Amino acid sequence: MTDEIPAAVQALIGVPLYDEQTEFDIEMGYVHNTCAAVENGNPLFWDKEVAAAITGGQIAPPTMLSVWFRPHYWAPGASVDRKALQAHFDLKELLNLPEAVVTSNETIFGEPVRIGDTLRVRQTIKSISGIKKTKLGEGRFWVIEVETTNQHGAHVGTDIYTCLGYRRPE
Amino acid sequence: MPDIHILTIDQVSEGQDLPELHVDVTASTVVLGAIASRDWRPMHHDKDFAVGRNGMKHIFINTPNNAAWFERYITDWTGPMGRLGRITFQMKASVFPGDTMVLSGQVKQVIIDDVGCAWVDLHLAVSVDSKVATGCTARVALPKDKDDNPWTRKGDQWKP
Predict the structure, then answer these.
(1) Which domains occur in chain B, in start order?
(2) Chain B, window 103-132: residues with a beta carbon less than 8 angstroms from a chain A beta carbon
(3) Rounded alpha-carbon distances, angstroms, from residue B65 to A18, B2, B108, B156
C-alpha cells in the first residue's frame, strides 16, 4: 500500500458532492421509532401541547439529523445498492480499502428540524490521511462534512465524520 | 401545559455529576437502534456478517444510535427545555449484546455567551465493564430562569 493519495481522489477534497434532498418529508413515525429504541420519554416528542409551548410545534430530536438522508433499503426502479454518506463509500472503493468504521462524529445543531420539513444535504471530503497502522488493520482516516439546510435555506446542522478505511491483516 | 421537569442554569455547577443510566444491551437494542436510524448495514443486524466480515464478536450499536442514547441521557437530566448545541463523540470500542452500558457525565463548564445564552459543557461516556466505549462532549443550552427558552433563539442569537 503506497502512502500517496491518487490524483483522482485528491481532486475530490474540498469539492461539494451529492447535493441531495430527503426522500420524504420529516415525519413523526420515525421520531417515535427513535425515541422508543432508546426509551426517550422527552415530552417534546410525545406531547403536542408541550411541543407547541416550547418549540412552537412538533420537532425531531436533533441527533436524528443523519437519519433523514439515509435512503430506503429498496425503492422501485433503484438498481444499485443505495447508501447514505456516499462519499465515504466512494473513498473505500477508490482507495481500495474494503472495510471502514466511523471513529468520531461531531454535530453542530442549528434550526430545529420540524415535522413536515424537507431537508437538503451536501457532502464534502475535508481531508484524507496518509497510511496508518491500526489494531483493525492498515488504512487511512478521512473526514467528511455534511451540511444540512431546510426548505427555507436555514442551516439545521453540520455533521462531521472521521472514518477509518482499512484492510484486515492477512 | 402539564407539569414538566425544567433544569435552569442556576441549578447547575461545574463538577456536578449527572445520575448514571444503566442499560442492559440485547440484540433487540442493537437492531431497534439501527433500524430506527435507518441504518441497514448488516453489521448491525447480521451476526454472521459482523463476525465473518468485520471481525467483530457480534453485531454492535451503530453511530446514530449512539448519538440517540446520549441525547436521551442529556435530556433526561435537563428536561425538554435543554437544547443541544453541539455533540462530539469518539468510538473507542463497540457495544455488543450482553454488555451493560453505563452512561455517565459531569458538568465541565457553565457559561453565558455574548448574546446571553446559558450553556453547559458536559463530558459524557458510555462505559462497559468500567472501560469507556464511547467518549462524548456536549454543549447544551439551558434556560437562565423560568421565563427564558433557548428554543426561541435563532440566527445570531444561537451560537453553539
Answers:
(1) 9-157 (3.10.129.10)
(2) none
(3) 24, 29, 24, 30
- Per-window interface: A 72-131 vs B, CB < 8 A: 72-73, 84, 99, 101-112
pLDDT above 90 as % of chain B: 91
Q: How far apart are the first and last CA of chain A?
A: 13
Residues near A133 by Cβ (< 8 Å), separated by ≥ 6?
none
Neighbour-count burial of A123, counting CB atoms closer than 10 A to its CB (0-12 exposed, 13-18 middle, 19+ buried): buried
- B33-49: pLDDT as tens digits: 999 999 999 999 999 99
ipTM: 0.95
Structural domain spans, chain A? 7-167
Angstrom distances, CA of residue A141 to CA of A3, A42, A105, A126, A165: 12, 36, 13, 11, 6
Q: Which secondary-structure segment (H or E) carries B131? A: strand B131-142
Q: Give chain B's radius of gyration (CA, Å).
A: 18
Site of grid cell 451529492: A18
Q: Is the predicted pLDDT of residue A9 greater than 70, yes or no?
A: yes
Q: How confident is the model at residue A148 (pLDDT cuts 50, 70, 90)?
A: very high
Interface test with A, best of B26, B31, B37, B51 (most A CBs within 10 A): B37
* Distance from C-alpha of B139 to C-alpha of B88, rounded to nearest angstrom: 9
Helix (H) or strand (E) holding A29: helix A28-37
Contacts of B155 (CB under 8 A, 6+ apart): none
Report CA-CA distances (Å) from A5 to A126, A141, B143: 14, 12, 48
User: Would you call B75 an interface residue with chain A, using a CB distance cutoff of 8 Å?
Assistant: yes
Inspect the interface and report whether the beta carbons of B68 and A63 lie closer than 8 Å: yes
Q: What is the CATH number of domain A7-167?
A: 3.10.129.10
Chain B hits for A37, Cβ within 8 Å: 29, 32-33, 35-37, 65, 68
